[in-house]
Amino acid sequence: MSLKALTSWYQGNNKIERLWLLAKIEFKLRYYENKLGLFWALLKPFMDITIYYIVFQIILKQDVPAFASYLFIGLILFNFFIESTTGTIQILNTKKYLYEYSNMNKLEIYLSTLLSNVIGFSFNLGMFILFYNFLEPESLGPSLYNFWIIPIFACLFIMALGTSLILSNIYIIAKDISQIWQVVSTMLLFVSPIFYKLINFKQALPSFEYANPLAGIIINARRVLMQGLPPDLDLLLFDYGYAFLLLFMGLILLNKLGSKAAERL
């Protein structure tokens, strides 16, 4: 039954074009009323990095090589996941008009929203690549291993989609999930190796990179983008296992609870 939402999505024409159009529109609308417009898509991660750099490198003196780049890639991956999940908790309510008064499948609404976040992430990843390869003094330079970021990010996308489906469908019957997820998001920020040396993270939380899939994504992204190494395949397979499990659970909830979303919200 969990495959019902997936199989029904393929019915009809121009699905990909419509998804991409909706994603572009949503991305532009997100910054429409801001005076700096789309520039905020680039400015926000730099502001976050500046704040955390001052706190963790200058004040707390984290001894991490190429710390700005180390922090940059960790933050943009983490922010993509949190923005994608937090921003979709109420999606079945705020975008009810799309599935009630059009022929849009509910899954399309999730996908278009996450794709709009992918556009923002692409800007940030491009800035990271430029910064690390041309401005970072401790850079090792580009490598063919860099292309591993594609399957690593695909895993993160599936994980975000599955989590979004779970949270938004729980919201139908328990509105408190919004507040609970805010607390969980803060906890995830500090139990992921974003600010800390990896060796310190592993000493404090042995094997926790296997329990926290976000940690595995960040570790592997740094391996392929900064260290000139292939990903840890065992860790990547674990992360894909988490991602597909979350997606499977999310599709079940969408089939069970999402079908009655219009009545309950």
Task: Describe, in plain words, how this protein is organized in 3D.
This protein is 72% helix and 0% strand. The protein contains 14 helices and no strands. The mean pLDDT is 85. The two termini are 23 Å apart. The radius of gyration is 19 Å and the shape is globular. The chain has one domain.
Keywords summarizing the entry:
single chain, 265 residues, mainly alpha, 14 helices, 0% strand, globular, Transport permease protein
Short structural description:
It is a multi-pass membrane protein. Helix content is 72%, strand content 0%. It is mainly α and 265 residues long.
Q: How many structural domains does the protein architecture include?
A: 1
Q: How is the biggest beta sheet arranged?
A: none
N-to-C SSE string, H for helix and E for strand:
HHHHHHHHHHHHHH
**Strand elements, count:** 0
User: Percent of residues in helical segments?
Assistant: over 70%
The chain-level structural class is mainly alpha
Number of helices: 14
Report the radius of gyration as a whole number of Å. Answer: 19 Å
Contiguous runs where pLDDT drops below 50 for at least 5 residues: none
The gross shape turns out to be globular
Strand percent estimate: under 5%
Q: What would the average pLDDT be, to the nearest integer?
A: 85
**Separation of the first and last Cα atoms:** 23 Å
Can you lay out the helices and strands and say which pair or pack?
Elements: H1 4-9, H2 15-30, H3 39-59, H4 67-86, H5 91-94, H6 96-100, H7 106-134, H8 149-173, H9 177-190, H10 198-204, H11 208-211, H12 213-225, H13 233-256, H14 261-264
